[in-house]
Amino acid sequence: MSDNNKPAQGLYPMQEMPSATQAPSGGQTQPGTQPPDTQAPGTQAPGTQPPQYGGQGMQPPPGIQYGGQYGMQPPAGGQYVVPPVQYAQPGQPGQPPMMVQPGAPGATQPQSAQWMAMPQTRAVDCPPGLEYLTQLDQLLVHQQVELMEVFTGFEFKNRYILKNSMGQQVYYAHEESDGCQRQCCGNQRGFVMHIDDNMQQEVFRIVREFKCCAGWNCCACSDCCAMEVAVEAPVGTIVGYVRQTVSYCEQRFDIMDASRNVILKITGPCCFCQNACCTDDIEFDVHGKGETIGKLSKQWGGIFKEAYTSADNYTASFPIDLDVRVKALLIGAVFLFDFMFFGRRANQRR
Fold it and tell me: Dmax over Cα atoms in the chain, in whole Å?
């Protein structure tokens, strides 16, 4: 049979038809068969391009200005520079499934985690990677239990999982510190806390310098005696500080911007006792302009966890429209409190 008498083929190749249905040599087709060079309905000829739909796309909505009345101004020079990172949108139609972050450098992370989806819009003055915080008014910080630390008594690097109120992981935090300081200085050690997103990109960093005599609130008027952390977002750009201030009973801290102007104040309790007879949360109130706008809480973890490990759970609550840089500073305050007040159990066990 010549090429002109072969039936047309669509997207899917058709098997050769039995001889009983083939056209006679004269080129006539039998009833019910497809005439030559005729395309079957619903098929597409090979080598042709499908039609294009949609025309011009919709413009994205203008950036939303975050900050509220306790906002901070972007750095001099205008907008933040977004690094060339393509963020995935887990859970969206037509997108890859929810990302699972493997272990971060120098640490082992849980093998499976449900990650919070990346927001599709970002304010022009929002540091890259902090878009998640624009949708949150509460963040849970769960420190991971180190079994080798429980059995050996040696201080290992701390690791934390940061989740939203729905239990979806937002960030992963892991400590970088000197091994000698961890064993000899305990919770007084200096550290760098790396905060990574679901693409293993470090979105912000919390840094505390080592101060051997710091931590006493009655002596916090001196820089060498006041505990302090600096928060960088993005890495290399300091957005503010959390600093201990002078007090004689309850603990007090200042939340300051990059120019060390006080934005918020934090007051904590005098007693940090938490045991089987006293299981209430230990709370730190966040104050701004004469009102309480948020709270940082250390939760009771149970008798075994409190007695034999140094792993703790925290909750940070704040207004949803609070500037994302201030939210990052409050997260830095959580890590500072963990080392200052609740990392002493490891020292006592040693």
Answer: 109
Global pTM reads 0.68
User: Across-strand partners of 161?
Assistant: 142, 172
Show the CA angle centred on residue 220, arms to residues 214 and 221, nearest 5°: 135
Tokens 């250390």 sit on residue: 298
In sign, the C-alpha dihedral spanning 87, 93, 96, 100 is positive
Got the DSSP string for 189-237? --EEEEEE-TTS-EEEEEEE---TT---GGGTTSGGGS-EEEEESSTT-
Q: Are 33 and 21 in contact (CB under 8 A)?
A: yes
Concatenated DSSP letters of 72-99? -PPPTTSSPPPPS-----TTSTTSPPPP
165/77 Cα distance (integer angstroms): 36
Tell me, what DSSP letter sits at residue 347?
H
**pLDDT, tens only, 234-259:** 999 999 999 999 988 889 999 999 99
Phi-psi bin for 337: left (phi > 0), alpha (psi -120 to 50), beta? alpha
Q: Give 65-120 pLDDT, tens digit per residue.
A: 444 556 665 555 555 444 444 444 444 444 443 444 444 444 445 556 788 988 88
Nearest to 115 by CA among 178, 58, 198: 198
Structure-token pair, residue 173: 């935090």
DSSP code per residue over 58-73: PPPPPPPPPBGGG--P
Rounded-to-10 torsion of CA 345, 112, 85, 328: -30
The structure tokens listed for 40 are 């079957």
Strand, coil or helix: 77: coil
Return the amino acid letter for 210.
F
Segment holding 182, helix H or strand E: helix 179-184
CB atoms within 10 A of CB 193: 25
